[in-house]
Amino acid sequence: QSKVDIKILDMLGTTTEHIKNTYPNLKQIGLLATNGTVKAKVYDKYLNNIGLDIYKFSEQLKEVAKKYIKQ
Prior knowledge:
Largest sheet: 2 strands, parallel
Strand content: 5-15%
Oligomer: single chain
Radius of gyration: 14 Å
Strand order of the largest sheet: 1-2
Number of strands: 2
Order of helices and strands: HEHHEH
Number of helices: 4
Shape: globular
């Protein structure tokens, strides 16, 4: 960070903090993401650490969401 003139954003931490601060009583969240992100469980640790369960979408809904993610 100190050797570059741009700010580096911690996407996972920033997103998680925003969710926690904006929705303090939330217990479960749906994650719209690519198959690779879901399979790699990129967000799981962060969301579970603030007490959130990740809603598992049906395969049909995943296919619909994938069309929008890739646009």
